[in-house]
Design a protein that fits this description.
single chain, Rossmann fold, 6 helices, about 40% helix
Length: about 160
């Protein structure tokens, strides 16, 4: 059984893939939902970070089946050793901005301040994410279903 972490900028389709995996009966967590993140306050300001203890706990309990967890937080690399695969979902900045403007499932990305944050993250964080992943999947050329099926194949991989 595999543990797969799905990351990517806001608007790349992480939540859609997680919903699709859940619909197919897989253990899947979108860290944007529920109590998986907390606010961290530092000199640089505030940011959302993963609750590492909760992620470790759910992974430890999920021994008999694969689990998929999605998110994008500054501390996620601390958890990478727990995962068999790190998968980055990506898209062009134009597509990301269009998706966050049009989506109704998540209010993030509607204000000009948030859109500027998305642009900064795309230019500065996306390259860092690309350095530490096993696979990068372009959500402009692959459908949610295609990505879901590829992730399921990875979870069934015995290597």
């Amino acid at each position: 059984m595999k543990r797969i972490y799905i990351t990517g900028m806001s608007g790349t389709g992480k939540s859609s893939v997680i919903r699709n995996l859940l619909d197919k009966g897989y253990a899947a967590i979108d860290t944007d939902d529920g109590d998986w993140k907390e606010i961290s306050i530092s000199e640089g300001g505030t940011e959302w970070i993963l609750r590492e203890d909760q992620i470790r706990s759910v992974i430890a309990k999920c021994r008999k089946s694969s689990i998929f967890i999605s998110g994008c937080c500054s501390n996620q690399a601390n958890l990478y050793p727990l995962f068999d695969y790190i998968v980055l979902l990506s898209a062009s900045l134009e597509t990301i901005l269009n998706r966050v403007a049009e989506r109704t499932s998540n209010p993030y990305g509607k204000t000009s301040e948030e859109r500027n944050e998305i642009i900064w993250n795309y230019e500065n964080i996306q390259p860092l994410l690309q350095e530490n992943v096993h696979f990068e999947l372009n959500t402009e050329v692959m459908t949610t279903e295609e990505i879901t099926m590829l992730l399921i194949e990875l979870s069934d991989n015995d290597e």
